């Protein structure tokens, strides 16, 4: 296991006056793929948004590579080395594939060529507008755009949700490649327990905005999945 990059300790967070996170604690190390799991509405996306500085924390601490993140503006969080693939993709519709990638570019190993090696479909559609892509291709583009920031931590929020099986397979294959070939920390929000079992090192389960279980994903047995995930 590599160096610890992200640590959340007893974090609370609010949407206005409404409390959304009550007690979130988790850690992610370099080279580790961590699954963030839970039923719908339990705080997974809110946790991702809080890591990225999109919500102010009420209490607790968030550290990235030893640096306190609580008071940093959003752009400063990204510059620390955190890449976000948001729920719903959110590509720039009227920019081409290549322009979507270049607009996020920061110096490092990830270039347009390297992204299109990972996702050949994007190379084939380099000059197409993002709005003309299929949902799966837009998801690939969202992942590629996050990689172009050359992050140390990649946050994937429901990266395979609602996609056709063949596209899901391509995206899981790409995530596997990222884990195997790079010292990249990856935090994945996804409901695909079968795929997560094959690739994740560790898992956290959230319930009502709090961390209720953590452990090696191999320890996530039938009783635990029924109790916390309903599957």
Question: What does this molecule look like?
Answer:
- Strands 6-7-8-3-9-10 form a 6-stranded mixed sheet, with helices on both faces. Strands 2-1-4-5 form a 4-stranded antiparallel sheet, covered by helices on one side.
- It is globular, with a radius of gyration of 17 Å.
- It is 34% helix and 29% strand.
- With 231 residues, the protein is of the alpha/beta class.
- It contains 9 helices and 10 strands.
- The chain has one domain: P-loop containing nucleotide triphosphate hydrolases (Rossmann fold).
H/I helix tally:
9
- Please mark out the parts with pLDDT under 50 across 5 or more consecutive residues, or reply none: none
Total number of beta strands: 10
CATH topology: Rossmann fold
Topology pattern, helix = H, strand = E: EEEHEEHEHHHHEHEHEEH
Share of β-strand residues? 25-35%
In CATH terms, what is the architecture? 3-Layer(aba) Sandwich
> What gap, in angstroms, lies between the N and C termini?
29 Å
Overall mean pLDDT: 91
Multimerization status: single chain
What is Rg?
Answer: 17 Å
Largest sheet: 6 strands, mixed
Apparent shape: globular
How are strands sequenced across the largest beta sheet?
6-7-8-3-9-10
By helix and strand content, what is the structural category?
A: alpha/beta
Broad CATH class:
Alpha Beta
């Amino acid at each position: 296991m590599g160096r610890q990059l992200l640590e959340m300790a007893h974090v609370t967070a609010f949407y206005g006056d409404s409390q959304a996170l009550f007690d979130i604690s988790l850690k992610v190390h370099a080279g580790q793929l961590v699954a963030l799991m839970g039923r719908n509405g339990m705080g997974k996306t809110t946790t991702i948004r809080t890591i990225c500085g999109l919500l102010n924390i009420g209490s607790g601490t968030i550290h990235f590579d030893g640096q306190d993140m609580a008071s940093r503006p959003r752009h400063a969080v990204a510059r620390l080395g955190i890449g976000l693939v948001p729920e719903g993709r959110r590509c720039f519709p009227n920019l081409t594939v290549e322009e979507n990638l270049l607009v996020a570019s920061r110096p490092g190993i990830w270039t347009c060529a390297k992204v299109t090696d990972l996702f050949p479909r994007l190379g084939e559609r380099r000059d197409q507008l993002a709005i003309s892509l299929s949902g799966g291709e837009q998801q690939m583009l969202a992942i590629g755009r996050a990689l172009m920031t050359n992050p140390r931590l990649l946050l994937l929020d429901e990266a395979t949700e609602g996609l056709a099986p063949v596209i899901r397979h391509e995206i899981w294959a790409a995530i596997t490649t990222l884990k195997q070939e790079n010292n990249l920390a990856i935090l994945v929000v996804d409901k695909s327990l079968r795929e997560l079992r094959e690739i994740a090192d560790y898992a956290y389960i959230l319930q009502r905005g709090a961390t209720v279980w953590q452990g090696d994903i191999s320890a996530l047995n039938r009783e635990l999945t029924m109790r916390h995930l309903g599957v």
